[in-house]
Amino acid sequence: MYLAHEDGSDTTLIDFLDGECVIQERRRLPRYRLGTDITVDDVNGCTLDLSGNGILFETARPFTAGDRVAVVVPLAHAGPATYVTCHAQVMRVERRGEVFAVAVMYELVAVDVLPPSAG
Q1: What is the DSSP string of 71-98?
Q2: Which range of residues forms the domain containing residue 59?
Q3: Count of domains for the chain
Q4: DSSP label at 116?
Q5: How close are the terminal C-alpha atoms of the chain, in Å?
Q6: CA dist 15 → 5, 19, 21, 75, 113 (Å)
Q7: Is residue 4 within a helix (H) or strand (E), and if so which, with residue range?
Q8: For residue 85, what are the β-bridge partners?
């Protein structure tokens, strides 16, 4: 049996083994906890975790599942004005008190370095 999420995905497998409930994640790539400031369609957010194909972040804006967004992640340790830009699709949105947890899946990733005069 699969646990259906609000967006219709079925990333969690629920099974019974020897009478015990066993929950197994079906994600293809591991998630890594990372709290860093990002910008999503010119709105500020903060990442909760990321994987090779997506980001979970919190923001004050209630995005909608299916939205296509531009995500900008600064890479301050790589030098001034260095950032990763990716286009993503919103997969699910959950209200968490005053903010929203938004899960997006990448469509395209590019690393951009601005010239010193633009930073």
Answers
A1: EEEE-GGG-TTEEEEEEEEEEEEEEETT
A2: 29-118
A3: 1
A4: G
A5: 51
A6: 16, 9, 6, 41, 47
A7: none
A8: 72, 110
With tokens 């967006």, the residue in question is: 7
pTM: 0.69
Q: Where are the alpha helices (DSSP H) in the chain?
A: none
CATH number of 93's domain = 2.40.10.220
Whole-number Å distance between alpha carbons of 9 and 22: 19
**What are the distances in angstroms from CA 97 to CA 20, 42, 59, 60, 61?**
33, 22, 11, 10, 12
Tell whether 3 is covered by a domain: no
What is the residue-level pLDDT of the chain in tens, covering all 119 positions?
333 444 444 444 445 555 665 555 555 678 888 888 999 999 999 999 988 889 999 999 999 999 999 999 888 777 777 888 889 999 999 999 999 999 999 876 655 666 665 54
